[in-house]
Structure formats: structure tokens, C-alpha cells
Amino acid sequence: MSRRTRKNDARTAGKPAPCAVTVCRGCCCGTAKIPGVDHAAQLARLRRAVGDAGTVRVSTCLDACEQANVMVVQPSAEGRAAGGRPVWLGLANDGDVAEDVAAWIAAGGPGLADPPGVLDLYAFSPSRRVRQGLHD
Length: 136
Known about the structure:
By secondary structure, the protein is an alpha+beta fold.
């Protein structure tokens, strides 16, 4: 993964950092261990749905395998300033999760807008060890 900072990225120069969705695609998430899910289509659908409102990143493992498939919705710079914190979503195997996450991001994301009610069903708190390992 690139260590380039957003302020050095010509595409985002001068723009506040948008919401980001980190999608786990490691040892369990995004693999045949989670049957009945077209993982590539799920990721493509999420990228299309989020569009320019935020960024979608892929991580090799977020170390919350018991919750596969895992996504982390990180607040924008404005959302973080308003008190928003990353929201972990687990068991996100339903095809409609992408649109729900995208709608939340379009509304402002963590710290600025309440998530669609259905996303509460996916929210979980990872262990402190896992949270400390994720850099946002």
C-alpha cells in the first residue's frame, strides 16, 4: 500500500479528506470461505455506489475474521472534527450493503450523518488490539 499522504496527491490537493471505506479481502473476507457471495461483484458495486463521494480501499486483512466480510467506514476530515470515528461493519455479505454505505457517505458519513438503520445490524466493535493496528 502506498505511503503517500493525501496532501501530496495531485488529485486531492487542497480538498478535505473524504470518507473512506476499507474493505477486507484477506484470509477469510472475500474468499470461498464465505460461500454464496460474489466478492468481486460486491467490491465493484461498492466502488460504483460510492463514486466520487469517498474512497474505497482494499486491505489484505483487518484481523476480524470471525466477522467476515468486514468493512470499516472512516469519517471525512469534517466528520472527524465533528467527533466521528471509524465504524466497523461485519458479516457484510448482503448485496445491498454497498448502497447503504454509499448513501451514508453521500449524507456525510460518520460524525455528520446517522447511518441507515440497517447498518446498525452490521456494526461491531473489534478488539482493542485490532483497533490499534488499523491506521486511519
